[in-house]
Design a protein that fits this description.
Order of helices and strands of chain B: EEEEEEEEEEE
Number of helices of chain B: 0
Oligomer: heterodimer
Distance between the termini of chain A: 36 Å
Radius of gyration of chain A: 14 Å
Structural class of chain B: mainly beta
Structural class of chain A: mainly beta
Helix content of chain B: under 10%
Shape of chain B: globular
Number of strands of chain A: 11
Shape of chain A: globular
Number of strands of chain B: 11
Chain lengths: 116, 113
């Protein structure tokens, strides 16, 4: 198991373009989270999935953002009509709920998005 | 709303102990975590503590929780240069999703020889 994998590592785009990021979680993990981290801040929760079901979305996730996890394995996060304020590190994390003691999140290395 | 606060910076000499402090406001916080982030890397879970505990020790790491004051600390014994990183405190209180975390802004720890 190689851990949580995110692609691409870096994405530079022009304002108004659409971008899509991919996350491959640890294979047996049933939960997958997306977080966003801006410079000098801690990560902020965006959304999460249990298997293929998207169970919660933060109010930070505007209508321009959509996330999917079609087969309960990998997930994609798409941002439409990007704005400069979308520039951030997008982090994916996965966990298993088959553990009565809370959830241990395993994070990927993130996708750094720069919107010019 | 929930808020997690940390001091921004800590400088420590190699071999000394480091203590990183965190305060939180949500009295329903159930799990409290410490994550480490090195440059260009994701977050690595160091340790966590359940709210009915006061202390947890794991090798060089000691977590202390003062529920009354809503204060959490992480002590790193015998700090090494490899401990230089940003340390994040985080809390969760949602029993439907313990993985939905509220993070602090992070404490930059610099270890000097």
């Amino acid at each position: 198991d190689t851990g949580v994998s995110q692609n691409p590592r870096h994405k530079i785009t022009k304002r108004g373009q659409n971008v899509t990021f991919r996350c491959d979680p640890i294979s047996e993990h049933n939960r997958l989270y997306w977080y966003r981290q801006t410079l000098g801040q801690g990560p902020e929760f965006l959304t999460y999935f249990q298997n293929e079901a998207q169970l919660e979305k933060s109010r930070l996730l505007s209508d321009r953002f959509s996330a999917e996890r079609p087969k309960g394995s990998f997930s994609t996060l798409e941002i439409q009509r990007t704005e400069q304020g979308d520039s951030a590190m997008y982090l994916c994390a996965s966990s298993s709920t088959f553990n009565s003691q809370g959830e241990k999140l395993f994070f990927g290395s993130g996708t750094q998005l720069s919107v010019l | 709303g929930e808020d997690v606060e940390q001091s921004l910076f800590l400088s420590v000499r190699e071999g000394d102990s480091s203590v990183i402090n965190c305060t939180y406001t949500d009295s329903s916080s159930t799990y409290l975590y410490w994550y480490k982030q090195e440059p260009g890397a994701g977050l690595q879970l160091l340790t966590y503590i359940f709210s009915n505990m006061d202390m947890k020790q794991d090798q060089r790491l000691t977590v202390l929780l003062n529920k009354k004051d809503k204060h959490l600390s992480l002590r790193i014994a015998d700090t090494q240069t490899g401990d230089s990183a940003i340390y994040f405190c985080a809390e969760s209180h949602d029993p439907d999703s313990w993985g939905k975390l509220q993070f602090g802004a992070g404490t930059q720890v610099v270890v000097t020889p």
